[in-house]
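Q: I'm writing a short explainer about Phage T7 F exclusion suppressor FxsA for a general audience and would like to include a description of its predicted shape. Could you first generate the structure from this sequence?
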Amino acid sequence: MGAVVGIALVWFVIEMLLWYLAAQFFSGWYVFFWFIAAAVLGVMMIKKAAGTLNPMAQQMKAMQNGVIPNPANQPAESTVAKSVATGLAGVLLLLPGLLSDVIAVVLLLPVVQRKLTNAAKNYALKNQDKMMQMMAKQMGGQSPFGAMGGMNSPFGKGMDGNPFAKGGFGTTVDGEAKTVKDIKRISANDE
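A: Of course. Here's the predicted structure. Afterward I'll give you a sentence or two in plain language.
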């Protein structure tokens, strides 16, 4: 907590210094009007991002009540990444300061959004066990098959509920699929 407060104080000092320098170079009124315009733009960007992300949040809430969402209603990954970046940029524009405004504009660049999306995916892949445990705790600690940890799992006992763990849930059947071209349809009238 102390580190966060220290970073916030250093950030504030840097922003104040940039305010002062910009006011000396341009005019104090220009800087003031820029902050007002940036705040209005930030609020508009947050509303736009919330409009895109709100249906997803409602689906997540419905999932907690046992409703299975329709995957067709999920927005594309690029749309979600753009909405999250737009929302964060809006929050940064709301903060009075030139440095936060520059970071907000950088967040809106598609190249930066792709890099941040890839970084988030890599983080999720590396920490998916921790994330699954966290989600299980948020959902009341119950698996759909009974007790947490797969104890009453139909796949077996003592496997920690993870079919992808070393040892898995048992035998894996490996096979090949082939396309069937000639299909004879049988109806109830055929005998």
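A: For your explainer, you could say: The first helix runs from residue 2 to 25.
Q: Perfect, that's easy to follow.
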